[in-house]
Amino acid sequence: MKLLRAAALDMVMLYAGKVSAVLVGFIFLPYYRHLLGAEAFGMVAVILSLQGLLIMLDLGMSTLVGREIAMADSSPNALASLVRTAEMSLTAFYALLLPIAVFLWAFGSFPSVDWFTVIGAIVLFWVLVLQNMYYGAMLARREYAAASTIQLVGVAIRAGATAYVLAAVSSTIAAFIATQLVFAIVQALVTRKRCIQFWTKSATDRSLLANPTLRDAWELIKKGRALVLFSAAGAAVTQLDKPLVSGLISANSVAPYFLATTVCMVPLSLLGGPVSQYFQPRVLNQNFAGADFPKSTVQRFVLCTILISSLPCLVFWLARDPLLGLWMGHGHDNSIISRYVKILLPGFVIGAFGYIPYTFLLYAKDLRFQAVASIAMSVVTLALTAFAAYRQSVDGVCYIYAAYHTVSTLVSWTRALALEKVRVAARYSAILTLQLVIPLVAIAIVGQFLIKNS
Q1: If we measure between CA atoms, which residue out of 349, 339, 362 comes closest to residue 426?
Q2: Pairs from 388-391 (Cβ < 8 Å, separation ≥ 24)
Q3: Each residue of 407-446: pLDDT tens digit?
């Protein structure tokens, strides 16, 4: 009973941390839009999309660091050095990215923003990427309460302070960036101290905690090169749709699409993500090579992922019109957002199921396949998205992304079924998933029919 209560508390804290990550989307984004206006908010939507892209495009550091910590095969000294080396790798990457961004701005690539916004945005991206890595490291170490508390408080304060500055000081993009940056730095420093402090207290020899070199950073990047490709492709395909819609259609068109995708990210980030983060260390620490794999762990993983991701989204999908009215207020864009959600949400829910085979592929260290498959799907998806945006069809973009998330999950599961190391466990999880999903699909079809004919 005590273990059950502890597991429940860990899961609650994980969800608290993830709630903070989407707090901006559900509480503050409509307010930001009201304060900034449609055109400026369109630019902020693009900045937030690039922010999400670069957090995912972290040279594979979050995944590499998290996996090493979760497997717990190294000493405290080595793990602390690993985090510091990852810091240096990311800092070097952004030191190269900054002059490139300034150069592009100087030659008119960003005509709607000033130089401060460009530099501030790059520094903000760097700070948030580091913060995300520290947060992931704490979760891999199963410090769910501390990590989620810092995340929840930090994101809530940053979002609230930004809203205050936009309302009372200056409703500009530069003010948005400056406020976000100041509070992001504070949160990152707090998380870093808590993250590193654990190992420095456990270290047996403080002299082994010397600062890493650029050579160490380069070797770490080479070690995670498959993860770099995988994260780069995933980041590009999930975030570049907004800049494409903005550039090929209009900044005004991207606002309802951005809000719709924010809603549809719920099954991936808020619902399925914490389940994956909770079970992933447990899966990586067990033996799935044979028929005697721990079925109870897989069963709980699948049940939690499917039911927690599906049931709230099923209710929202069926009642999306009144619920969007409560969230956004009654505006002329609501019907457009509702139409986009109707197309996107089922695909994003299936995408959340992909956490299951992804964890098995991570266990099997099948990183090369993931990188190649991710790059191939990303290239095709972005090409089709550009074509749909060129044809002025946001609906087409929605169908493409719903298909992308569905195909991504199916490809991951197919690969897991083909690997000897995890084949039996993957087959068991696939059958269990189908047994849960088929009734939910039937409920969705019947519910939509009844609503349409009521």
Answers
A1: 362
A2: 389/244, 389/245, 389/247, 389/248, 389/249, 390/248
A3: 999 999 999 898 888 888 888 889 999 999 999 999 988 8
